[in-house]
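User: What would this chain look like folded?
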Amino acid sequence: MTQEVKMAAAAAMAADEAERARGRRAALSFAAIAVVLGLPLWWRTTETYRAALPYGDIEGLGQLPFQLAVPVAVVFAPGSVPGDLPRPLPFRDVQEMEISVNLRPSITSRYETVYRRTASQEEAALDVATARGHLVGLSDRVRGPRNLLSPASGYEITFSLLNPDPKSHAVDWDIEDAVNRYVQPVLDKLSLVANFSVDSQILYYAVLGVTPRFDKESSSFLLSAHSLPHVINPVEARLGSSAASLYPVLNFLLYVPERSHSPLYIQDKDGAPVSTNAFHSPRWGGIMVYNVEAPASPQVSLPLHVDVDMVRVMEVFLAQLRLLFGLSREELPPEFLLESPGNEGLADWELDRLLWAHTVENIATVSTTLTSLAQLLDKIGNIVIKDDVASEVYQAVASAQSAMAELAAGHLHLAFQASKEAVTSSERAFFDPSLLHLLYFPDDQKFAIYIPLFLPMAVPILLSLAKIVREARQREKEPTKMD
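Assistant: Here's the prediction, encoded as structure tokens.
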């Protein structure tokens, strides 16, 4: 081989090596750009935004000390102060005890009892001749509403007159005046708990849907206790108020039996007649059967005009309303004097107990809601947590903590308002549309979306890198063969 041929071969080999070097540099450049610039840029632009949440505070809501401050005043009339009192009047005694409720394992109740003598105005109000001291204070039990277990921000109260036989009875009821005189004072006092709206209606040809049983002995028709649950569904279809209301509806129905089923009486489980001739259903309302006296003469022209005794009716409906809110009468020893609700139909201590129950339940609801939300977001990591959602969560936690602090300080109204704000914020966060997991792709679907995009670009780069590695290994072996 001549010198020129060798030089040409060497030049070709050098050019080929230079070409391979440029290919290696190009492949490495593409790989470096993809790894250093492309992947971070893709990761950043497709990253799920998740605002920070107070997970520790949410977990701590169920562990914070729960304390209720209960102010109690023991007032002694003149001449009734016991001689064995531990100290002269007036004095204050503070005791703490643990009480049991359904919502939490234990709640500490802090009783702040003030012992004092009667003031001049109190002496005029009490019987001076009473030889005993009377306890006037607040109930020592916190019990949730036994019928409305989940408190709402508002309720719609509907009074309905059911006249299934308008050909026989022309019923007239002054519901507007009765509501203003008897119901509105109660609702005004309950306005701290919720908002109320009241309406009324008259339904003709609306029957109960259950055929009463005729009793020959009493010549009357009877509705037994086991048939009462079947009364509500047929009637509720005619009411129509629940479908158009944003709030829970409390129904109070006055039913005037048709002439062919009069008189109609309700029996309890023992078969005894119910004195009010009425019954109530938890979370729904109540029904009262209003019997019309039969005309003295069969020749009386029909329809018979009926004026409803609204005092008797409202006594029943107000009692049912109290039961729906868990405001039953306490049975106390005869030597105890209990504050009368007066025209408002609701005593201050009853309202306080209701606020206690709602506050405790609101805080428990907030704790449950936020805990569920935190577990959901922890389980599904690709859900976006927007700033406004995080803000609602922070607000709910702060309001719940504030409510517990106000309860411990004895500021009942402030505690209740804070608990309502906590419930509102927690529900806004939990039900935010952006948290619907159906809006986001699962991880396996994400791979199915991105693989067709990245695979055509990644295959040449990976093959080039593999080729570079093979060539590097061959170059390492060539000096060994030459030796």
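The chain is about 45% helix and 20% strand. If you want, I can go into more detail on any region.
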